[in-house]
Structure formats: structure tokens, C-alpha cells
Specification:
Strand 9 and strand 10 form a beta hairpin. The longest helix is centred in the first third of the chain and has 22 residues. About 45% of the residues lie in helices and about 15% in strands. A four-stranded mixed beta sheet has the order 3-4-9-10. Strands 7-11-8 form a three-stranded antiparallel beta sheet, sandwiched between helices. It is of the alpha+beta class and about 475 residues long.
Length: about 475
């Protein structure tokens, strides 16, 4: 980090972190002030891969570690562009803003990361709406629940962090211009390349933290590499090669970050790694455990309460509307339920006791759907066919590369390093896949004693509708320890 961003008479006090991946990582003093706040420190207690540590013992890494890693990579990339291409006129302020955006881009995660936002909250709000309508004798009720993206909550938490800890004064001390630079940081987190009013002359900066066009960004670089490391999954992606080959090129009347054409195999491998992680871990091996955690949180919602701003009281599902309350929610809620003597938490506690005693929901089987199949109808029909209300869990699963056949990727060649050309991964090589996603219906049972009947029922349904035979695919994991 250059010292140019530091005004005169301001003491330079960079701090060094020893990261398990990158070794010694040096952070700007403003980063340290952000990190040393309760709102950022809570990320230590939010696991990166939700319930994976119950199957993969090494998967205890947190959003805290990932955030620092992403900040390091963002700084490394933007400073390399600054050195290689001085004509871009990247300033020290640009570098600092990009690093802060990478550092804070996951402030909005709740307990167990994506589980809270994608599984718990939608089901809690749906349950609340249904119960309210039932109390009103079936009359419709306008709910205030809104589906959030974690980036949106990250921006709200960043505002809360800065205001509560009086850090806007520190931002000005390090020559950041407010509100312009703060708006720029927020737009980097949100991926607002088109809507942002800041840095319109440097659109390539929006490709670094949250690339909403191709998905190639430092968030994925760090999370995939870190997850593979802690989960024990082999990965052949060399992110350093990608960072070294990155340069800004002209593409369709704007500038964007491009990669050498010979790095196409590494791009493939990055998205293939994503697919493997989802197929083998995120949406398979630990899926039953995460379903159990979600159900426990749903039963505890309304019983566990947290104090927010102005001493208002919030539940697990409403705390997201108040950042003071939300900042108090971490993975500790698991132990709070597990060790509680509150009789109102008995049902939630019973589910978590099953997890820690390895009495897990069992995988009955899965059915592969074709692209034209109505997944919701299949889910409802299969649920009705299985019967035994409250025994089976029927889940819709979408496993993909995180891209489509229309996703554009920008490259440059050795002969024309300043001009970008686009490739789509589908069809770029005869040996690469022609389909980047698969849709499944997966069935779990809360009881072991009826597994045989459930398997027969699922197999009859599969044959009747002509779905792909499971034996024609790779073996599926039953969720036992690895």
C-alpha cells in the first residue's frame, strides 16, 4: 500500500494479519478501525459454510477471515492495474474505496450465512403471513416482509457501523470525500455499475468486488479457494495467474477488466469448482443438517428476542429491519437454543439435539428434472404422494455453475492487449460441458423406520413420469461424515 493516501501529520500504522492462505497481509489503518468494531467483529462468529462443520470438521472458517482475504485480493488487483496501466489514473482514494468495499461486502450476513437469508427468513415471513390470514378469517393481509439480498443488508450495516463508531470522521482524515466516496463504496458492494453516479469514468472498478456481469471477482476468488482448503476439496484454480493476467481493455464503448485468452481453462475451472462445491457439499452432504437448523430457528422465532435501537424488541425474523438488533445475531443462537431451559424452546432444542447426537434426517433419494418440467407442481405432487404429513422434507434444488450459456466473458490476446473480445463458455471448447445447470427434487425423511417404503414410493413416481434413473448419474451422498 502506498502512503500517498495519508495526509501530512497522520501517523501511518499499518497492521499485519497472518492469513492461512496469503501469509502476511498488510492492512491500511482505516481498515483496522473498521475491523475493530463490534459490528465487524461479529463476523468471527458467523461460519462461511453454514452447517458444513458438522460433516467436514475443518469447515469452521468464518466470514471474518473471508472478508479480510477479499480485501487483500481487491487491493492486490487494483494496485496491480494502477502500476501496469498508469493511463487509467487510478488514485489512492480509488484503491482505498475498493478495499473497504471488499472488506465490508459481507457485513449483512446473519446466523449461518446464506441459510438465514435464503431459507429461514422467507419461510418465517410466509408462516407469519399465513397465520395472520388465518386469524383474520382468510382475509388477505399486506405483509411488510421484503426479500433481502445480503449485499443490501451489508450496505445498511455499513452505515450503522460508521455512524455508531463515528468513523466518517476517520474516512475524512484519510482524504476520502463524503458522501461521494461512501456512495461509491456502497455501489461497489451492490454491483451497481450502471446506476452508480460515482467513478463513471472508471467503470472497470465495479468488476472487482461484485461483478454482476460475468461473476469473476475477488469475492469468488477468495471464497472458493478458502472453502476448498477448509473442506479438503481439491481445486486446480490458480487465482494468482488470473490476477496477474488482468488488465483493463476497451469493450463496447466502455472499459472493463479482461483476462488473457489463454486463461480460459482457469475460468472454466473456477466455475466448475463452484458447481462441485454446490453438488457435493453446499446443496447435498450438509443439506439435511441445514434443513434441521432452519426448522429449529423457525420454532424459536418469537421466543428468542433481541433489543434494538430505542430499546425496541425484535424477533429472529424481524431483527433484519433494525441494524442494532441484527448486529447481535450470530451463530451463537444455536447454543442459545441448545442449552436453554425455556419450555417454549423445547421443540427447537429437540431438533438441535438430534444434530449433535447425529440422529440426522436421512436422504430418501432424488429425481432429476428436465428443463421443461414444472418444478413446483412436481414438488406438490410428490409431497401429496408421500403423505405422512410432517415426516418428509421435499426440496427443490438448482445446482449450477453460476453462469448461463449467455454469460459474456471478456478476454484480450497477446497481439491486441488493449482490445477486448467476448467469449461464451458454452461451445468455446468441444470437451467442455454443454449444459451448466441441473434441477432436482430431493426427498429427506425425519424418520428412519419408513425409509424403505419411501424409497419404493419415490422410485414408482420416477418411473411413472420417466425421470432420469439415479443409477445413470454419479452416486449421491447420504450425508454421513467424510
Amino acid at each position: 500500500m502506498t502512503a500517498g493516501i495519508l495526509p501530512k501529520n497522520v501517523q501511518t500504522s499499518f497492521e499485519v494479519f497472518n492469513d492461512c492462505f496469503y501469509g502476511l497481509v498488510e492492512l491500511h489503518p482505516l481498515h483496522i478501525e473498521i475491523i475493530d468494531t463490534p459490528e465487524f467483529q461479529r463476523l468471527r462468529n458467523i461460519k462461511q459454510v453454514a452447517g458444513a462443520h458438522f460433516v467436514y470438521p475443518g469447515a469452521t472458517h468464518s466470514r471474518f477471515q473471508h472478508s479480510i482475504g477479499a480485501c487483500h485480493l481487491a487491493g492486490k488487483l487494483v494496485r496491480r492495474l494502477k502500476t501496469k496501466q498508469p493511463e487509467l489514473e487510478i488514485t489512492d482514494g480509488d484503491v482505498l474505496c475498493v478495499e473497504i468495499a471488499a472488506l465490508c461486502h459481507h457485513l449483512g450476513h446473519g446466523p449461518f450465512s446464506y441459510l438465514f437469508m435464503d431459507e429461514f427468513l422467507p419461510r418465517a415471513w410466509k408462516k407469519e403471513t399465513e397465520e395472520s390470514e388465518e386469524k383474520r378469517n382468510g382475509e388477505s393481509k399486506q405483509t411488510t416482509a421484503t426479500q433481502f439480498k445480503h449485499e443490501e443488508v451489508s450496505v445498511k450495516m455499513l452505515d450503522h457501523l460508521l455512524n455508531k463508531n463515528n468513523l466518517k470522521k476517520s474516512m475524512k482524515k484519510y482524504n476520502l470525500n463524503l458522501p461521494g466516496d461512501l456512495n461509491f463504496i456502497k455501489d461497489l458492494i451492490l454491483g451497481n455499475k450502471e446506476e452508480s453516479q460515482e467513478r463513471r469514468d472508471k467503470p472497470f472498478l465495479y468488476d472487482i468486488v461484485n461483478n454482476t456481469v460475468s461473476g469473476i471477482d475477488v469475492d469468488k476468488f477468495d471464497s472458493f479457494a478458502r472453502d476448498c482448503h477448509h473442506l479438503g476439496v481439491k481445486s486446480n484454480v490458480d487465482f494468482n495467474r488470473l490476477l496477474l493476467s488482468a488488465r483493463v481493455c476497451d469493450a463496447e464503448n466502455r472499459t472493463q477488466i479482461c483476462y488473457r485468452d489463454k486463461e480460459l481453462p482457469h475460468i472454466y475451472e473456477m466455475f466448475r469448482t463452484r458447481y462441485r462445491l454446490h453438488q457435493k457439499i453446499y446443496q447435498h452432504t450438509v443439506c439435511a443438517i441445514e434443513e434441521m437448523i432452519t426448522e429449529a430457528l423457525l420454532k424459536a422465532d418469537g421466543v428468542i428476542q433481541v433489543k434494538g435501537s430505542n430499546d425496541r424488541i425484535f424477533t429472529l425474523s424481524t431483527a433484519i429491519y433494525d441494524m442494532e438488533a441484527y448486529s447481535k445475531l450470530t451463530d451463537h443462537v444455536f447454543e442459545e437454543i441448545l442449552y436453554s431451559s425455556d419450555p417454549n424452546l423445547e421443540q427447537a432444542r429437540a431438533i438441535l439435539l438430534r444434530i449433535v447426537s447425529r440422529d440426522l434426517y436421512k436422504l430418501v433419494g432424488e429425481v432429476v428434472l428436465e428443463g421443461s418440467d414444472d418444478r413446483k407442481s412436481c414438488e406438490r405432487e410428490l409431497s401429496d404422494l408421500l403423505g405422512e404429513d410432517g415426516v418428509f422434507v421435499v426440496k427443490l434444488v438448482d445446482i449450477n455453475y453460476g453462469i448461463t450459456d449467455e454469460t459474456p466473458f471478456a478476454f484480450y490476446s497477446k497481439d491486441k492487449p488493449g482490445v477486448a473480445f467476448q467469449l461464451r463458455l458454452m461451445g468455446a471448447s468441444p470437451v467442455e460441458p454443454k449444459v451448466f445447470s441441473e434441477k432436482l427434487i430431493r426427498v429427506y425423511s425425519r424418520r428412519v423406520d419408513i425409509m424403505a417404503q419411501a424409497k419404493e414410493c419415490l422410485e414408482e413416481w420416477r418411473k411413472e413420469y420417466g425421470f432420469v434413473e439415479p443409477s445413470k448419474r454419479l452416486p449421491i451422498d447420504d450425508g454421513t461424515r467424510t
